[in-house]
Amino acid sequence: xxxxxxxxxxxxxxxxxxxxxxxxxxxxxxxxxxxxxxxxxxxxxxxxxxxxxxxxxxxxxxxxxxxxxxxxxxxxxxxxxxxxxxxxxxxxxxxxxxxxxxxxxxxxxxxxxxxxxxxxxxxxxxxxxxxxxxxxxxxxxxxxxxxxxxxxxxxxxxxxxxxxxxxxxxxxxxxxxxxxxxxxxxxxxxxxxxxxxxxxxxxxxxxxxxxxxxxxxxxxxxxxxxxxxxxxxxxxxxxxxxxxxxxxxxxxxxxxxxxxxxxxxxxxxxxxxxxxxxxxxxxxxxxxxxxxxxxxxxxxxxxxxxxxxxxxxxxxxxxxx
Length: 321
What we know:
By secondary structure, the chain is mainly alpha-helical. The chain contains nine helices and no strands. α7 runs antiparallel to α8. It is rod-shaped and about 195 Å long. The termini are far apart.
């Protein structure tokens, strides 16, 4: 009895041990399976993290490349701006020194050339001297000893013009022009229009009526001058007087004294012969023509090319600098 109980007790204990072992084995198996799954999950996460790190590295490399390209472009533009700034400073320095000097030299050369042309075409020494003076004042604005020879040559030319006969050609030409404008206002004795005859005079002979209807008018003049004039003849006289004054202007500008005085003599004779002496404007014009006839026109003109030549030499030096 006792042995049966002992056996039974041992058998129950063995079953419990087996059961415990089985439970332990099941727990170990479950833990191993869960560990394997966790290991696989961790491996997957690790691979994902590696991919993300690789993508981040690629993005960083791309961003670094773009940043380097942008930085290189910025440095290039900055270098271009610096180069342009240097060019601008050089251009400004050139304008303040040589560029402005060359511009002033060109202006002085133009004035000196105009002075020579004015003297050649109009024989006006005073106007030419004023142009040379303007050229000298232009060169005086240049702070450079190199312009002194040109200014010296200009001063010599101005002295030559000052020592020459001073004739206000421009003023005389303008005065003749003013006289030409008065020609149309001068009073010339003009014949009155013949009265119109509606009916022939029956008391006169038939041949007299035929003569009255003919376009030819027979006139008799007791004096030397056929006055009064017809409207067409008066217009021709005014045109002759204006032409004489115009010839005097042309001869004056060309420095031809004989032709100038001859033209004024013709104008004076036309006034005295055809225009009314008691008319104030005719008397004024006659007095003005006599005054202009006494003015000296022909005068020796000096050579003034030294100043222009010196300025052209200065321009060549400045252009080659």
